[in-house]
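re: that chain from earlier
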Amino acid sequence: MKVRELMVRRVATVSPEDRLDFAVKRMKERNCGCLAVVNDEYRALAVVTDRDICMAALESDAPLSRLAVRNAMSPTLVTCQVEDSIAEAERLMGLHQVRRLPVVDALGRLEGLLSLDDIAREARREKGLIVPPVSAEAVGRTMGEIGRPHLVSET
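^ sequence. v structure.
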């Protein structure tokens, strides 16, 4: 099974210069907890999650209206492409401990978003098949890898 078969194509986006209060409003409007951060050419730069915003607010002690998305967005971008296999996407999620992957074209332009929830829904839907394209075991393994504790060094 390919990423294109499960990804969401209509992705809520923000720019790095948008304010975090705007990002929160967009999340509420779109009923989502993650936004793709894109530039003017619609190239994926990062993702920003509701948790990222909470952490940025806590660390800065400033109102969200005074903080830019760039203050909260993920520092590293991990992506996949539409023709990648779901197994490869799961591998990337586990390796980088992320639950969502922006799907980009060869130029890095955003085409969609694939989440672990999308993969889990497919695993449940396909459960009745003898050889499901996405197994519940694979989803469980990926969730375990994502949930692995991060080592935090005290400074």
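The chain has one domain: 3-146.
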